Amino acid sequence: MRVWKFGDDIDTDAIIPGRFLTIYDPKELSKHAFEGTRDEYAKKVKAGDIVVGGRNFGCGSSREHAPLALIGGGVNVVVAQSFARIFFRNSVNVGVLPVVCKEADKIQDGAKITLNLKKGFIEADGKQFKTEQVPGFMQGIIDAGGLVEYAKKLKEVPACTKSQA
Amino acid sequence: MGATIVEKIFSRKCGSEIRAGEVVMAPIDGAMIHDITGPLAIQKFYEMGGSKVFDPERVIMLFDHQIPADSIPAAENHVYMRKFASEQGIYNYDINEGVCHQVVLEKGRAAPGEIVVGADSHTCMYGATGAFATGIGSTDMGFVLKFGALYFKVPETIRAEVSGKFPKRVGAKDLILSIAADIGADGATYQAIDFAGKTILKLDMSGRMTLCNMAIEMGGKAGIVAPDKITWEYMKGRRKMKSFELASDDDAKFVTKRTYNVSDMEPQVAIPHNVDTGVPVSKVAGTHVDQVFIGSCTNGRFEDLEEAAEVLGKKKFNRKVRVIIIPASRDEYLKTLKAGLIEKFVKAGALVEAPCCGPCMGGAFGLLAPGEVSLSTSNRNFKGRQGSTEGRVYLCSPATAAASAITGVITDPREV
Ligand code: SF4
After folding, report:
1. A57 to chain B, minimum CA–CA distance in Å?
2. How far apart are CA B4 and CA B247, in angstroms?
3. From the alpha carbon of B358, which atom of ligand 1 is closest?
4. In whole numbers, what is the pLDDT of chain B averaged over residues?
5. By CB atoms within 10 Å of each CB, which of A125, B335, B384, B396 scores lowest?
């Protein structure tokens, strides 16, 4: 499991450019992930690899094609110092786990990485970095394996009910 | 303690006090899907076991990103969505009306105090009417189509107080570019921006739309302007409803209050490849441009095109620049046409296209080759947004775009 390291403000146009948005199949999308930004990624990414970004990862458009393009390449976890709101939520919904790690900038490209998220840390090239938990109301969606599975179990949703933050 | 306009909207909807930070399953008044994010939303709706949408009259469907269909897959997406619309009894504006956000507002499909979502990040533009509006992904939209509700963490609010009088050729776009530079690309993440102050009270709906449109460029969940006389005037004929009071209380809890004065503001330009890089036009004046795009949901309204036409005057566009002008909607197109501006633009050398996203979408047409430079009135200048990742996109107002299209280099609109 290697790290694919990116910088700050990685936008969804960089993750998957606009001209590929007629594609919805994750595998097909993954062939164009980071095209023009980092061409070797699509060719070399392997199942279990992890994408690591800096601040504001996934900013820009609401295209769900972005987390889908990651999943298609076998990337199920993204670690970043912070995430853009829509990308964060889209990721949870489609089954990519967004992990906030304030020190993600210190993780090197190509590092070997292991996750100990329940214990609240990850290990990259032997060094430990603290990670944060996802907000409470999203945990149910993650546990279900995404919003589709979560929604299947719901008969109705009573409007205005409050949930744990 | 008072409440912010956002807290008030959620509280009104639910009939109980709701505060920032709380997570609530909010009822949805309107849900917009377009040709890019719609097919996936529909697919998710079915995967979730959906059969009938929560309320066909609250679903807004149209095509704007890839129209007329620019590829066979795009055409197939349109067919798929049309079929869904007719099966579900959803009114589909199809390819006829223009850019989603402009159309939603024009058709009165978002209104003060409502909670509206769209499967597009710039949905925050509807905040110009005093709605709480935010962009969501396709799976969330699938959920909304099925249940008519969605979990929201009610955002905290940044208050942006704007005072002063805009100098000639300086306007809402220059203001929002300078606010973005101040707040930063992630400075409003998970937050709403409440635009207020004397300058906003005088600003027309078109300008308010430009401001709210770009709240997302600071990570904002929503941009919002409290409804006032101008808003209610705009709503007339679009939506039957009585006006009511809705604004943040003075003693509401804001995360921050920021003040801006526009009296001495210069036209602003955001330089590649981030939106929060706005600088006074004088800093980048003289930069060569290959393409100028005037249009998009940010600045494709009649007011924008009129401003561009005023700058153009009797001049011609530079023959070395590809000038692409796209009114944001059919209504805006017609207003522009009736005012004689389309003819003026065409005679001056511009290519005027039918309402759609155009080059802003970065896939349909008007793409940049490596090394080319675009100056655009749209809202994003990310690497590759308008074609090659080796192209460069600068953002500016319609006035600056028109001035630069005349000279062929980035130009202060007060100097042509
Ligand atoms: S004009 Fe541009 S920003 Fe607006 S909806 Fe279309 S692609 Fe998105």
Report:
1. 10
2. 7
3. 1
4. 97
5. A125
Integer angstrom CA distances of residue B184 from A61, A126, B179, B220, B274: 17, 34, 8, 11, 10
CA angle A96, A101, A105 (to 5 degrees): 110
Residues B231, B233, B239, B242, CA torsion sign? positive
Q: Which helix (H) or strand (E) holds B403?
A: helix B398-407
The string of pLDDT tens digits covering residues B51-64 is 999 999 999 999 99
Contact call for A147 and B142, based on CB within 8 A: yes
Q: The complex's ipTM?
A: 0.93
A57 DSSP assignment: B
State yes or no: pLDDT of B50 exceeds 80: yes
Omega into B398 within 30° of 0, i.e. cis?
no
pLDDT tier at A156, thresholds 50, 70, 90? confident
Residue B374, pLDDT score: 98
pLDDT category of residue A135 using cuts at 50, 70 and 90: confident
How many Å lie between the alpha carbon of A93 and the closest alpha carbon of chain B? 6
d(CA B64, CA B358): 9
Residue-wise pLDDT tens digits, B98-129:
999 999 999 999 999 999 999 999 999 999 99
For residues B92 and B108, give the distance between their C-alpha atoms in angstroms, rounded to a whole number: 15
Enter the DSSP assignment of B368.
Answer: B
Contact residues for B383 (Cβ-Cβ < 8 A; gap 6+): A11, A13, A14, A36, A37, B272, B273, B389
Q: Scan for tokens 């020190």, then name that residue.
A: A103
| Separation of alpha carbons B93 and B205, rounded Å | 22
CA distance A82 to A146: 21
Find the helix packing angle between B205-213 and B302-312, rounded to 10°.
100
Q: DSSP H helical segments within chain A, as ranges?
A: 12-15, 26-30, 40-44, 65-72, 85-94, 136-144, 147-152
Question: How far is Cα B53 from Cα B31, in angstroms, rounded to an integer?
Answer: 11
Q: First and final CA of chain A: distance in angstroms? A: 32
Report which residue type is found at B3: A
